[in-house]
Amino acid sequence: MSLFDLVEKGIKDEAKSKTVEMLNDTDENYILDEILIPALDVVGKKFEKGEIFLPQMIQSAEAVKASLTVIKENLISKNGDKKEDVSKGKIILATVEGDIHDIGKNIVKIMLENYGYEIIDLGRDVPVDKVVEKAVEENIKLVGLSALMTTTVKSMEETIKALKEKMPNVKIFVGGAVLTEDYASEIGADFYAKDAKSAVEIAKIIL
Questions:
Q1: How far is the first Cα of the chain from the last one, in angstroms, to the nearest whole number?
Q2: Mean pLDDT across the stretch 43-69?
Q3: Distance between CA 189 and CA 183 in Å, rounded?
Q4: Calpha distance 27→17 (Å, rounded)
Q5: Whose CA is closest to 107, among 175, 37, 21?
Q6: Around Cβ 49, how many Cβ atoms within 10 Å?
Q7: Which residue from 132, 61, 56 is spatially nearest to 96, judged by alpha carbons?
Q8: Band of the pLDDT at 84, cuts 50, 70, 90?
């Protein structure tokens, strides 16, 4: 079974061993961008249509997590776990208040770290004040916010508003299944990251 199918069916252990096997001749970014993310998109769409239910969606997310762990370990062993002496800049990542989905955010985190950025990961279901407080404390230039549920886009909008009031120069990129580029600019975000690759491009522009 292909890695795509394993993720779609939520078969965690096999997804892990398949990733190990694929890394012998396949680039990490290819596995992320061409297999894991599209597979998650398919699962997300099926969930929205009511073709699968939350337990299946969680199993798929777990399969992706297992695959990501392998990719991360592979990158570390390649880079000899050397932390870049010079970080290209700090970025805050958070899944907004009320939202507990963090697979997308975790994929973006791995990609950005791979490109030498220092990530301050605030986790999921993060209150507005916490994001603002940390951004001020660390004098952050770029914040990435994620929301996967339509109901939590409101708290994403509130987080953006609060950040801009406190730090007018901060740039914010947003991502998540429920967002589009138009919607992102409507709620005040500076950038819309449709995938992990675009998040890296945005980081290159700002930092």
A1: 41
A2: 86
A3: 9
A4: 16
A5: 37
A6: 8
A7: 132
A8: very low
pTM over 0.85: no
Residues near 20 by beta carbon (within 8 Å), at least 6 away in sequence: 70
For residues 152 and 28, what is the distance between their CA atoms, to the nearest angstrom?
31
Q: What is the 3-state secondary structure (H, E, C) of 33-45?
A: HHHHHHHHHHHHH
Cβ neighbours of 82 (radius 10 Å): 7
- Domains of the chain are 3-78 (1.10.1240.10), 90-206 (3.40.50.280)
Q: Give the percent of the chain with pLDDT over 70.
A: 97
Which residues contact residue 106 at a Cβ distance below 8 angstroms, ignoring those fewer than 6 apart? 65, 68
**Do 103 and 40 touch, CB atoms closer than 8 A?**
yes
Place of tokens 């970025």: 91
b/e 133-143 (16+ beta carbons within 10 angstroms → b):
ebbeeeebbbb
The single-letter code of the amino acid at 121 is D
Mind listing the pLDDT tens digit for each residue in 161-187?
Answer: 999 999 999 999 999 988 999 999 999
CB contact set of 33 (below 8 Å; sequence gap of 6+): 195, 196, 197
For range 64-92, the mean pLDDT: 80
Picking from 158, 203, 151, the residue whose alpha carbon sits closest to that of residue 176 is 151
Say which DSSP state 96 is in.
B
- Going by pLDDT thresholds of 50, 70 and 90, the confidence category of residue 19 is very high
